[in-house]
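Collaborator request, handled under Task 6.
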Amino acid sequence: MDEGVGNAVAAKIHNALVLYRSLLDLPGIEFRFHRTVLYNSIYRADDRLFVNTHVYGAPAAQAPVWHLRKMPGGELASHYLDSFERVWNEATPMTEA
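Structure tokens returned to the collaborator:
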């Protein structure tokens, strides 16, 4: 595994699925799985983003988090939104909780 943390990522994914399972019953909520290398974690709500940049040798909890929102003429949030959409469109929808 690229992160060098063994099964830790799989355990974190499992934990998140258990904790957020009830959200799947709400309209507009969807989980998807992807296999891309994690350069950052993007948490999205409409055009607002929290981007947790990954820093080599540091856990995500110790890495910077940027709060971005799409603004007319701005490019930074658009770059992350485009990245999110590329991964999302190729990801596999979760079919059962």
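The cover message to the collaborator said: "Strands lie at 32-33, 40-45, 48-53, 65-69, 92-93. Helices lie at 8-20, 76-90. Please let us know whether this matches your experimental observations."
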